[in-house]
Specification:
By secondary structure, the chain is α+β, with helices and mostly antiparallel strands. Helix content is 45%, strand content 21%. It has helices at residues 21-38, 51-81, 134-147, 196-201, 250-254, 263-295, 304-324, 339-359, 365-376, 382-390, 393-415, 425-428; strands at 2-7, 12-19, 91-96, 103-110, 124-129, 150-153, 163-172, 175-188, 210-216, 230-244, 417-422, 437-438. The strands form 3 sheets. Strands 6, 7, 8, 9 and 10 form a 5-stranded antiparallel beta sheet that branches.
Length: 439
């Protein structure tokens, strides 16, 4: 097998491979021999069909199948021989494809880039910390009460926090669009589940009211078929229901698995839960600050195939969210809206891969078990959860990858200059409050 490599860019490669004719002929003959054993042709018993008849019937099929298999195997063999790490599937174009001739094909692909910056020496990172206070527990209890809100039909005009059940039908250019209609759709006002114009129109309505509202979908609305377009919704109000927030009593507390129903045990359980959330958020915030520092002035090419995979994952997540909200989700979605974030995530992943490779980090077994145990702590039988997780290598590999990244973050922090800052729990848990990084 002859292999020639040329660079088509910083990470682009074009590989020309030539497989000897006798290897292709041998693969074709093997294919035809197997077909001869099972082929059903009128006038011949199975397994007794002359090879000339088999060749006349299946020569093209055997050539195509043999070539596909040889191209695949020789491509991966060539990658190994040339020590190339392809980032995604190749684009393959056969040059010669005929029996009796050398099989030649050209494969265009991208390789993983070399990441030059894989340390944080000389970088200052501010790490935020917080304590759990009584007011944080009070606020959490109030949130839990709101989440257990019950609703009762009320003969009154709707207001914020009421639940309104409606039938609606939306039209664009006079036509009902996909996902633009629903029956018995329930929405709690003030939660932002619908577009503002739609939700605002439902404030002050009563059961059996009928109304028509105009609205314009945002230009960046995920559903491309209606993005930026004017629509008109016909709405029938089926029910207005007022909220009833439960009291903090023994019955309420027991619904959270607190057997004695005491306020003290309830608050202790909440504190433990908040501490767990805090620790998880701390890991995320440190990771974000470390990655931001790592990516500063760290330029390298990014494989297109990896970016495309990230975009596909983002679009799938958006479709699921739209479907859950009863909104259009099957139409085309503009991939360009997700390009920048996908590009960023891929760059971050490649940079961290470079760190792990530089430091030769392997998953710490004790840390892996600790993470799985932490995940299982919220289940009724934590020990059974841990056992179930360790029984499947693919499940365990996901946690091992997380732990390796955490170890890499710890190693990078050890290289950087870290300053701790204490803030409130409420501020600490805000998703838009990352730690600061200075060069």
């Amino acid at each position: 097998m002859d292999v020639a490599i040329e660079n088509t860019g910083a990470i682009g490669r074009r590989m020309t491979v030539k497989v000897p004719a006798e290897q292709l002929d041998g693969a074709i003959t093997a294919k035809l021999t197997r077909l001869a054993r099972t082929a059903k042709i009128a006038g011949f018993r199975p397994g007794k069909v002359p090879m000339k008849v088999i060749e006349s019937r299946f020569a093209d099929q055997a050539l195509a199948e043999a070539a596909d298999e040889l191209i695949s195997s020789s491509y991966f063999s060539a990658l190994a021989d040339k020590s190339l790490d392809a980032a995604g599937p190749p684009s393959i174009e056969p040059k010669t494809l005929a029996r009796g001739e050398d099989l030649e094909f050209v494969a265009d692909f991208e390789i993983f880039p070399d990441v030059t910056k894989t340390d944080l020496k000389g970088v200052s990172v501010e790490r935020e910390q917080c304590d759990i206070k009584d007011e944080d527990i009070d606020r959490t209890i109030d949130t839990l009460r709101q989440q257990r809100t019950a609703y009762s039909a009320a003969e009154k005009a709707s207001e914020t926090n009421d639940r309104v059940t409606i039938d609606f039908e939306g039209r664009v250019d006079g036509e009902v669009f996909q996902g633009g209609e629903a029956k018995d759709y329930a929405v709690v006002l003030g939660k932002g589940a619908l577009l503002p114009e739609f939700e605002n129109a439902l404030v002050g309505v009563k059961a059996n009211d009928e109304l028509t509202i105009p609205l314009t979908f945002p230009q960046d609305y995920p559903g491309v078929e209606v993005a930026g377009k004017a629509a008109e919704f016909s709405i029938k109000v089926k029910e207005v229901a007022a909220p009833e927030v439960p009291e903090i009593d023994e019955a309420f507390i027991k619904t959270f698995g607190i057997e004695d129903g005491s306020v003290e045990a309830f608050r202790t359980e909440i504190r433990t839960s908040l501490e767990r959330e805090r620790d998880q958020r701390a890991r995320l915030k440190v990771r974000e600050s470390v990655l931001d520092a790592l990516m500063k002035d760290n330029e390298f090419e990014v494989p297109t195939a990896l970016v495309d995979e990230e975009i596909n994952r983002s679009i799938q997540a958006v479709r699921q969210q739209l479907q859950q909200r009863g909104l259009p989700h099957d139409g085309p979605i503009d991939r360009a809206n997700y390009l920048d974030e996908a590009y960023r995530r891929v760059r971050l992943g490649l940079a961290m891969h470079g760190v792990v490779k530089r430091l030769e980090i392997k998953p710490d077994a004790d840390r892996v078990r600790e993470r799985v145990t932490e995940m299982g702590s919220s289940y009724s039988d934590p020990e059974q959860f841990v056992k179930w997780y360790f029984e499947d290598k693919s499940r365990l590999a996901q946690i091992e990858a997380v732990v390796v990244e955490e170890q890499a973050v710890d190693a990078l922090l050890a290289e950087a200059t870290v300053t701790d800052k204490t803030i409130s729990f409420e501020e600490f848990m805000r998703p838009d409050a990352p730690a600061k990084v200075e060069a």
